[in-house]
Amino acid sequence: MKRFMVFLSIVVLLIGLVPTVLAASRLRVAVVIAGELGDKSFYDSSYQGLTRAEQQLGIYGKVLPCKTDPANYMPQMIAASSNFDLVIVVGYELIDTLKQVAPQFPNVDYVYVDDVVKVGQVTSIVFKQNESSFMGGALAAMITERKGFPMVNAQKVVGFVAGEDYSVIRDFLIGFKQGVHYIDPNIKVLTGYVGGWDDPATAKEIALDQFHRGADVIFQVAGGSGLGVIDAAKQAGFWAIGVDSPQGYLAPHHIIGSVVKNVGNAVFDMIKAKIDGTYKRGVIYTYGIANNGVGLSYSKEMLHNVPADIIQKLIQLRTDIITGKIKVKSYFGKR
Amino acid sequence: MYIYRSTINTLVLILLPALGGMWTLQTGMLNISQEGSMLVAAFFAVFGSYIFSSFWMGLFFAIIASLVFNLIYALFCVNLRANIWVIGMALNILASSLTILLLKSIFGVKGSFTSDRIQQIPFVHLGNLGIFNGVFNDFSSIVWLTLILVILFKYIDSHTTFGLHLKAAGKNWRALDSAGVSSIKVRYMSILINAVLVGISGAYLSIGYLKLFNKDMSAGRGWIAVAAVIFGNGNFTWTIIATVAFGFMDALGISLQTYGLNSNLTMMFPYLAIVAALIYQGVKSSKEKAIEE
Q1: What is the mean pLDDT of residues A264-279?
Q2: Which end of chain A is more exposed for a tag (fewer CB within 10 A), N or C?
Q3: CB distance from B114 to chain A under 8 Å?
Q4: How far apart are CA B48 and CA A134, in angstroms?
Q5: B246 in a structural domain
């Protein structure tokens, strides 16, 4: 009996090993995210990039969420580093942990998404969110100035609601303000910060406050909290601008367009580069409006809501940014 | 003048659990699990409202969920005399993870859920009131319900035998038991009444004020209610004053941000109010102790 139990446990162990052995031949990619999937924007977009790579490139991928709990940052990062070949890190909360962990795993490749991390082998992906945010600002300004457009009042005021106040968000804000003022320097931009990415009730309160001060187009960069702004738009009747992923489907008649960041594309590109052997360690990849890393969504909801002449003007502005005719300011200075 | 409406909207969310928590504190049980109950109630409000396309069912499910949650708390803390902090914290953590799990398994989404099938708790429109339009019109019916409840609670608290039983259960439960009233029953009553109130406030959060569920959407409001209860120390007037102050500071913070004050500063406001209130409370009670000695 005892011998049989030993035999049985060896068999079970071996069966358990099979997927590991099978996976060993494939590239193993971990995506460590600071929050949790389901924000319908930033994290979900990176997850899409990973699943696309799984389907098209046959890699083994896994998402390790930290649920915005600092106690999880280090264990998840070490778990990823010890078991995977390529670790993609998403979320500014993880920067310090990455700086500590990366030097201890010299054989692992790290990609940090959305900022520059200058440590050893870490490759950084930066998005020029100031450029897409500029486009969002221009869109907001042209809508708020349009007379007789649904839900637009006479006041020249637009709003900006963000989750928390940190570098990337400031970059969004600088671009947005510049875009608004490029169309008309007299438009006022109201700003508000929720103080968290999972508090739609406070976000709604801020949006309604801005609405009562004349804002009729509000750009939200607030993850889960942003849903509160969209809810406020539906209730009070104003236009919201979506962020990161095309969010038009959430409220087709109240989201004028979305400022998107194609995190998924960047994640996919990195995995593909790694497989093709063109991956470079310790460099900075920039995704701007020129290589479609960022931009407006131009989804069917957006094309339905925005008048054709404004769309034309937006495309003109995009060309001007690419050719350098318009220089969009950045919070990060020169990159 | 939007700050007034903003205050009312946020106030209701903390006033209901603060009222319920005040009574459980009177019976000698500080209810720590408010945050978790509110979150679970918010989830089941969306669940009920979505499945049946009726806000009544949303409210019903929210209250049932909150009752179940609070019964667990009561079972451990009243009957088994467990430490309220341990049980309360465990329930709060459970609520946060449980709602994420249910969101994934029932609706198949991660993080947040919204749908047109969710029916919102109706708003009350009293007709054209001229200059009072902004003062009374278009609040959620829960706001008016809360107002009625506050008056009702004031009456029960200071004019009925039940109000006395509550205080007796906290101050001297042996005396209450010897008078033929079960102190355990009184404690259960206070916890279950609290459960109903927290259930309503959770439903207000997800299907009254908003029309969606987002993970951890209670965002510390249950804790603010607990702080108000601690500050009020079982006293009706002080509990109400504390809640109104916190609600107002919250709305003030939002309003000042729009005027251009730094957000990191304004976000501190409600918490600053709590710290100030608790310091005042601490100094007062240490003085009282000194007098007693």
Answers
A1: 91
A2: N
A3: yes
A4: 42
A5: yes
DSSP A25: T
CA atoms within 13 A on the CB side of B253: 24
Phi-psi region of B228 (alpha: psi -120 to 50; beta: other; left: phi over 0): alpha
- What are B240's two structure tokens? 């109400």
pLDDT above 60: residue A181? yes
Is B292 domain-assigned? no
Write the residue in A44, A209, A234 that is nearest to B6 by C-beta. A209
A82-105: per-residue pLDDT in tens? 999 999 999 888 999 999 999 999
Nearest residue in B to A226, CA atom: B214
> Residue B122 corresponds to which tokens in the numbers above?
């109706």
Provide the residue range defining the domain that includes B184: 2-121+141-283
Joined together, the tokens standing for residue B101 give 């799990």
Smallest CA–CA separation between B220 and chain A, in Å? 9
The pLDDT tens digits for B87-105 are 999 999 999 999 999 998 9
3-state secondary structure chain B: CHHHHHHHHHHHHHHHHHHHHHHHHHCCCCCCCHHHHHHHHHHHHHHHHHHHCCHHHHHHHHHHHHHHHHHHHHHHHHHCCCCHHHHHHHHHHHHHHHHHHHHHHHHCCCCEECCCCCCCCCEECCCCCHHHHHHHCCEEHHHHHHHHHHHHHHHHHHHCHHHHHHHHHHHCHHHHHHCCCCHHHHHHHHHHHHHHHHHHHHHHHHHHHCCCEECCCCCCHHHHHHHHHHHHCCCHHHHHHHHHHHHHHHHHHHHHHHCCCCHHHHCCHHHHHHHHHHHHHHHHHHHHHHHHC
Residue B130 in any domain: the answer is: no
Terminal C-alpha separation, chain B:
50
Using an 8 Å Cβ cutoff, are A201 and B212 in contact? Answer: no
DSSP conformation class of A163: S
Q: Is the pLDDT of residue A34 over 70?
A: yes
Amino acid at site B80: L
Residue A242 φ then ψ, to 5°: -80, 170
Choose the mutation target among B104, B121, B221, B263 for the interface with A, i.e. most A CBs under 10 Å: B263
Alpha carbon distance B193, B195 (integer Å): 5
SS3 letters across A74-139: HHHHHHHHHHCCEEEEECHHHHHHHHHHHHHCCCCEEEEECCCCCCCCCEEEEECHHHHHHHHHHH
What ipTM was predicted for this assembly?
A: 0.88
CB atoms within 10 A of CB B276: 13
| CATH number of domain containing B154 | 1.10.3470.10
- Indicate which of A169, A227, A253 best probes the interface with B, i.e. most B CBs within 10 Å of its own CB: A227
Q: Contacts of residue A39 in chain B, CB cutoff 8 Å?
A: 111-112
- Is B59 inside a domain boundary? yes
Instruction: Enter the pTM of the model.
Output: 0.84
Q: Which domains are seen in chain A, by residue range?
A: 25-128+264-287 (3.40.50.2300), 129-260+294-323 (3.40.50.2300)
